């Protein structure tokens, strides 16, 4: 019998919106981003809030409840906001996922309701995954509260939790209904988190946009001084480059190529090796530094360009070396090198790594030389410890 | 700042293939359906087999291993086939899902490997879900072994497991790479399972295709007598109608409409109320009977058409009544009626129920009258117990 052919396309659309003071009563953005619902005047919402964000913004939960009450004609809050622990550790805890699914069940959150996540990347990943699998997918709105999530992870289509000791071992591709970046949340960030997300902007500038790189370089000191306007410009362009890339050739990553993961093969491994002492953006800064030095050792970029990048990362306040970079397996192999294989395994197919041929110009390769990785590690260690060098 | 708009489409393609004796060494269909992999000559596969199927086909596991060995140039079996319990109960057991995810981790199944499920609908749902969430989605091939899964659930894009006592509370929309229907598996089915899947063909014929309904009517006795040719024709047309519908307006069911669930609001509730004593297809037969009688009571179809359908279902060997239909809540409401609300809650949005305006002609409504549901239940009870009626 003849094969029956299935063939269809599914269209996904969402906006990444920018605002401040989202839940002030006269801010109508939140209402505007909920698609009109012909079936019911009221749109049912359940908020899930990162505990760190709730603690740093003590009036937030009340504000949300007051906002939904003020707009009761169109919004129905199904229950008080659910507050859950944030940070990468949250993604290691299967109980948190279960707690979110139970909330969906208990409060009658249906496929046409909105599960709204407010928090850092980890909370967005966790709530996004719960939204993606409960009832085979509940409408999901992301309100990222960190630089990292506002300019990178929060504007994309992925979610995930960790399992078997592996980052994002479990997850899906599930575009949100909307992303809302509220700059107010950035004001309460501790310096580490303000800084950490900047590495993703450096990353995407390095592989795609020399002009953006130049702008980051110019604004480096302002960024260190927590200038909000400079940060907003950085977040906007970084988010835009990520959104453009994701909407391009392969949004759900059916192929092997994943250029936005420049610097990430080492970063993922370092997060794990440091038991998440390094935050994602900090690990990415080290990963970028490693792959930039590697690109120079391979003769792909000039020493001047290489130093330019390392200097920028240091100006921004990033450490370019952590002791875990030099850890070795019993075989004598650098432990970090195992990250290459884990990266390939997670993506599947052929190892595909982004390197640089210049500032703003990425290129994919399918192999990295262990000896050169080792040399790159030594370079970072020396650059990190200039005082010792001078004693030699 | 201006909203950044994301907008992309994802294309999904797969074939539903028909064969017999899939793992005989000279059958190349399995090799043909694995997309060419530029990255590696060998395509990595892990088979997961329904225990019921492995028991009924004692040489199957050896055959699979011999087949992959014979085609070692292009296939690499990552481990011996994993055998797991089947039937609806399997979808209630979180340990089975965990076992599958552990297998993916232990055997290095990556996003470009193939997780191949062989079994009835429950095993396909369970393995499909594991494939959809591990590494954010592993390539998945379905080899349905029952009538129900070959003509309906197995050819679609959904997967799921049960949670909080609710069917498919957790799951995703994740199209497979291919579906392969091997008629050999049908020969070892017990009569109940041979029959059960036929109700889905009656369902789709009733709402979409009067000619197909006529054909089922003509072939009814052959189907009861396990005539393989008649069954193959039924499966083919039923699968085709399902594939066409799914590929139509709303494959991932973003809206409220779900016409293929004709008869299913009651069926889902009955499965739960009978602790899955009723198999899905059997429950669907009762659900169809209920909604057909309801359509007649509403004056939407003639008594002749109504009886025509009930007679067909009985000729095929289905019971049209189970005692659970008359169970009542403390409030006096029929328990089955709660299925309407659970159905609405699972779909979300507005209650949307398919009824009939004729044979081959479905129509959607947004309300059902409890009094008429109650009357329909009485009609089915009487039809089921004609001997008692004659004593009145």
TrEMBL record, chains A, B:
Enzyme class, first EC level, given as a word: lyase
Cofactor dependency: NAD(+)
This protein's UniProt keywords: Amino-acid biosynthesis, Aromatic amino acid biosynthesis, Lyase, NAD
One MF term in the entry's GO annotations: 3-dehydroquinate synthase activity
All copies of domain 3-dehydroquinate synthase N-terminal, residue ranges: 82-195
InterPro entries, A to Z: Dehydroquinate_synthase (IPR050071), DHQS/DOIS_N (IPR030960), DHQS_C (IPR056179)
Enzyme Commission number: 4.2.3.4
Coiled coil: none
Domain 3-dehydroquinate synthase C-terminal: from-to ranges: 197-326
Name the UniProt record assigns to this protein: 3-dehydroquinate synthase
Organism listed in the record: Pontibacter locisalis
């Amino acid at each position: 019998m003849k094969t029956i052919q299935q063939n269809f396309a599914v269209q996904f659309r969402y906006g990444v919106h920018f605002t401040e003071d989202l839940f002030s009563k006269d801010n109508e953005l939140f209402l505007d981003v909920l698609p009109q619902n012909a079936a019911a005047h009221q749109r049912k919402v359940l908020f899930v809030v990162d505990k760190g964000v709730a603690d740093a913004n003590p009036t937030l939960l009340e504000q949300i409840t007051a906002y939904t009450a003020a707009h009761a004609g169109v919004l129905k809050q199904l229950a008080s906001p659910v507050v859950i622990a944030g940070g990468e550790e949250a993604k290691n805890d299967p109980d948190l996922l279960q707690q979110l699914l139970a909330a969906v069940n208990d409060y009658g959150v249906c496929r046409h309701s909105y599960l709204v996540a407010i928090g850092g990347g980890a909370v967005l990943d966790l709530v996004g995954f719960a939204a993606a699998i409960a009832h085979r997918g509940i409408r999901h709105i992301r309100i990222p509260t960190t630089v990292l999530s506002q300019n990178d992870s929060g504007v994309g289509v992925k979610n995930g939790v960790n399992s078997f000791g592996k980052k994002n071992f479990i997850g899906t591709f599930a575009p949100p209904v909307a992303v809302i970046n509220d700059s107010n949340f950035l004001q309460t960030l501790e310096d580490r988190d303000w800084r950490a997300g900047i590495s993703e902007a450096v990353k995407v500038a390095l592989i795609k946009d020399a002009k953006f790189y130049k702008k980051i370089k110019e604004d480096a000191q302002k960024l260190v001084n927590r200038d909000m306007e400079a940060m907003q410009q950085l977040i906007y362009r970084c988010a835009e480059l990520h959104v453009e890339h994701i909407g391009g050739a392969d949004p759900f990553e059916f192929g092997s190529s994943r250029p936005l993961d420049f610097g990430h093969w080492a970063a993922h491994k370092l997060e794990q090796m440091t038991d998440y002492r390094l935050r994602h953006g900090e690990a990415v800064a080290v990963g970028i530094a490693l792959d930039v030095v590697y690109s120079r050792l391979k003769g792909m970029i000039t020493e001047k360009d290489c130093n330019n990048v390392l200097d920028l990362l240091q100006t921004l306040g990033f450490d370019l070396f952590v002791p875990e970079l030099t850890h070795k397996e019993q075989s004598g192999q650098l432990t970090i090198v195992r990250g290459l294989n884990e990266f390939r395994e997670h993506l599947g197919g052929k190892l595909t790594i982004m390197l640089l041929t210049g500032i703003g110009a990425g290129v994919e390769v399918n192999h990295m030389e262990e000896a050169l990785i080792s040399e790159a590690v030594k370079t970072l260690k020396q650059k990190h410890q200039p005082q010792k060098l001078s004693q030699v």
